[in-house]
Design brief:
It contains 7 helices and 26 strands. The protein is of the alpha+beta class. The longest helix is centred in the first third of the chain and has 12 residues.
């Protein structure tokens, strides 16, 4: 079999599917990329039994067949060729002969017989989301997923679609992130996707795209269709946290302030915190300012950020890292922060509306 294609297109395709290749597997074929050559198409697949990435490129083809190839050799030889168009000629012994401009090289592939087929969703449902919206939702919530493998369902993100609303939710026990969008879907969906699959999906979506992502799902798997690329993942089982019950419905204090000013202040505070020197940030409302201070074994900081403040005065403590990560994920120049007392959850929202809701547990201050 033989195929001729664009070197750049192939190089990008290899890079994309390599993210799904198993590092160490009981089936040796899973440590490679499966290549299927058919009429005017070349299909590439990386699959580690939990996450699969498959893409197709156009090519001039002669013959049909399949083989499994080393991701490193496939990528490096393709990327380092000197021309724009690259030719692959695979003989009956699965020797891969590559030529591009004046360069020729060859190396061995293996049979694709042991490479398992990707899961197929025949009886599932489908809904659509704008790719750029999906990327934003992932990037704004993934920071809050749990790393505790004792409860696997919390290491993923909940997709909750109902009544025209699409909420993506992540929680780790100390913080909760919700990203909200409207949807045309009339179906109800409630499933949890592993964080790794979502991060790979986000990396495959171009920042400037306005194209649609088709999402297919059943009880066990999910498939994201991004152009000619498919990301296939198993779903996580178990009962996800009832996030709606954790979201405050009222507040006693609201603060509106510059996200950048608060970020800069908290980043300064980070200089005084390390593994041996930990302390909560003290956040206290005053007349038109938020007073912020911290003291550790390294030193101390007293700072202030101007703000619009309504409601009761409050003095509250929080983990600097948790609030910093929430602010970095937030969109907009200003944010709202809401409080219900010194030991109630801290709420971070956009200046207007509730396109995102970030919750952070407070830390009790001494005295």
């Amino acid at each position: 079999m033989k195929f001729i294609c664009s070197k750049n297109e192939l190089s990008e395709a290899i890079s994309n599917v390599s993210r799904g290749v198993a590092q160490k597997a009981a089936i040796p074929a899973l440590e490679g990329i499966r290549v299927i050559v058919s009429d005017k198409k070349v299909e590439l697949t990386g699959f580690n039994l939990e996450l699969g990435i498959q893409t197709t490129i156009n090519a001039e083809t002669d013959g049909e067949g399949s083989f499994v190839i080393s991701p490193r050799l496939f990528s490096e030889f393709t990327r380092r060729m000197s021309g724009d168009e690259i030719t692959f000629d695979i003989d009956e012994n699965l020797t891969v002969n590559i030529s591009c401009s004046a360069t020729e090289c060859s190396f061995s592939a293996i049979s694709a017989k042991e490479f398992p087929d990707l899961p197929v969703i025949d009886d599932g449902k489908c809904f659509t989301v704008k790719q750029s919206t999906l990327k934003s939702m992932i990037n704004m919530t993934s920071y809050a997923t749990s790393t505790n493998e004792s409860k696997p369902v919390m290491t993923g993100e909940l997709f909750d679609v109902e009544d025209g609303n699409f909420n993506m939710v992540a929680i780790d026990g100390f913080r909760l992130a919700i990203r909200c969008e409207k949807t045309d879907s009339t179906e109800k969906y409630h499933f949890v996707v592993p964080k790794k699959a979502l991060l790979e999906l986000s990396s495959l979506i171009k920042d400037d795209t306005d194209k649609i992502c088709n999402i297919f799902t059943n009880d066990r798997h999910i498939i994201f269709e991004v152009g000619s690329t498919f990301i296939i993942s198993r779903l996580l089982g178990g009962e996800f946290h009832n996030y709606k019950a954790s979201t405050p419905h009222s507040f006693s204090t609201e603060v509106i302030l510059s996200k950048r000013e608060l970020l800069t202040c908290l980043e300064r505070c980070s200089l005084l915190i390390d593994e041996k020197n930990k302390a909560p940030i003290c956040f206290e409302t005053g007349k038109g300012v938020i007073k912020i201070n911290i003291r550790t074994g390294i030193g101390k900081i007293n700072d202030a950020v101007s703000a619009d403040i309504t409601g009761d005065d409050i003095r509250i403590g929080f983990n600097n890292k948790l609030v910093l990560e929430a602010l970095r994920a937030a969109e907009g120049d200003k944010v709202r922060m809401r409080f219900n007392g010194p030991m109630k959850v801290i709420e971070i929202l956009p200046l207007e509306g509730e396109s995102f809701i970030f919750l952070v547990m407070p830390v009790q201050l001494k005295g």
